[in-house]
Write a structure and sequence with these properties.
Four copies of one chain form a homotetramer. With 137 residues, chain A is α+β, with helices and mostly antiparallel strands. The first copy, chain A, has one domain: Roll (Thiol Ester Dehydrase, Chain A). Chain A is built from three helices and five strands, in the order βααββββα. A five-stranded antiparallel beta sheet of chain A has the order 1-3-4-5-2. The radius of gyration of chain A is 15 Å and the shape is elongated. The model of chain A has no long low-confidence stretch (mean pLDDT 94). At the C-D interface, loops of C face loops of D. β2 of chain B pairs antiparallel with β2 of chain D, so a sheet runs across the interface.
């Protein structure tokens, strides 16, 4: 679990900002979800297919998030995603949103649980995904 | 179809604004959807139950929208919703977002179609809804 | 600081949900911000006037958030907001999103800092606000 | 004004979808704004610098939008942006959101006006931008 984090670039648009002139705080959660989704895709898995074919969703259980510096319109940012801990039915991530100079704007510890798509009851992470994570991170 | 429009008050929060200091344009579509949903609720129908019990969704087909004046943080607005035309499988609304002085900030003609919830194919509006609209508007 | 929490009702619309069929996780941050804004308004303060007249913003510094149960379309929820700790330049809140049966769907500890509106540098909470909080909570 | 449209790829994430299982209608407006912003950037202009250095914003005045087919989670889409008409103080765009097979999911005619950033009063499009549009489109 010590590989380089997965990174995904993104751009700040008007939709992401608020009247304070900077990125609206909930926007960072959207950015981080894009990061986790693309990380999962690099392992060969798509959330829609997981839901349809295996009846599984990854759902957020807990998040600790520090907002350190504001980001402004047109900024080019990067979301860095790293698996910090893999458990039988959940994954703990560390995620950073950084500016092009490498400053941390936002940092979060994110706990995602694997649940049944219909009833949201916890279930084990499929072995194929667990192996891809262990091998790929 | 000449009754007074249904009105729903709303408040502008940071989440609705952008770095221009005013309501982000796509926010008005969210406001108008709240208005249509509450209008439908006053007729006795809820979208989640329609989807679950009758397998129906109302989906947007077309919108003509004029953005006339900006709205700012903390503003108290009203969404006015009026059925302009009821067809067998669609409803045409006129919707206005107004400030407390009655100024029109945004005006739209909105065409919603009734579709099957799974395949999004057009289907007739249930008679119970059509009657409630005809009687109630 | 032991008074009953401020509560604000809200309704779940399509805009708040995602393809999992439940409220999108970042939506709870929007709900909680509505709660803090209305809490502040009951004390007699509006964020837009604070920014314009005193050059101040309240900005999120840190959030610990637990997502406990999903909420679905059309649900009627309540955001409960309580000041947990008042510091010279920041406020710590406890916030809950609950369903009509009083179940906790989401719980957060939220740290908001008072900053200059232009440069986002920390600054003291104005005495008028601090007094209103101490008296009112 | 007959050049090939500017195109920008995008991916559908959970944040873009709603409980109907497809992209939430207002999401297309966000997608189209990303398209116009990137189109402007290819001409050498950034909205934040326009606001700061010239006191100008481009603001939406009118939109006619047809929602033709739904898009689902994980879909790879393209936003195509083409200037249809350049006027002294406004630009009319035609924008399409398409799937990888080239199907039109959503089509809009979008009228953007150039306004003063503080008071939102109409003002002429700077000559440098008008020339870049005429030359570049």
């Amino acid at each position: 679990m010590s590989r380089a984090p997965h990174t995904r670039p993104l751009r700040v648009y008007y939709e992401d900002t608020d009247a304070g002139g900077v990125v609206y705080h909930a926007g960072y959660l959207r950015f981080m979800e894009r990061g986790r989704t693309e990380w999962l895709r690099t392992l060969g898995f798509e959330q829609r297919r997981l839901a349809q074919e295996q009846g599984l969703l990854f759902t957020l259980r807990r998040m600790e998030i520090d907002f350190m510096m504001p980001a402004r319109l047109d900024a080019e940012l990067v979301v860095a995603t790293r698996v910090q801990r893999l458990r039988p039915a959940s994954i703990e991530f560390e995620q950073l949103v950084q500016d092009p100079q490498g400053n941390d704007l936002c940092r979060a510890i994110v706990l995602c649980a694997c649940v049944e798509a219909t009833r949201f009851r916890p279930t084990g992470i499929p072995q194929s995904i667990a192996e891809a994570i262990s091998g790929g991170n």
